[in-house]
Amino acid sequence: MYRVEYEQGNGYHCNCCRRTSNESEDFETEEEVIEFLLKKEKIRKGIIKKDWEDEDDWDLLEVREIKDVDLTSTYEEIVRELIKGNISPKLRSIKINKIKEKIER
Q: Which partner for 48 in 42, 69, 74, 77 could form a disulfide, CB atoms 3.0-4.6 Å apart?
């Protein structure tokens, strides 16, 4: 999953009227990210028609890969395994790594 963060302006460029907000869009694939950015840039350059008045007033802030994996069950299992016995920190570390390997398979 990918997240594109950008600053959206209100179309005014003077300091007294200028307002911006940070926006973000999430996409499943790199291709979707590229298509989104191509569309935004074509709108900015006037190549394609904008859907709303100030859509061309934007600046790219960041494109980031994100991993929205729910780790609740992983950590619940780690805690259950560790609570079974009072083990040394070294053995605890080994046990945690073994549990993580098992879960990642």
A: 42
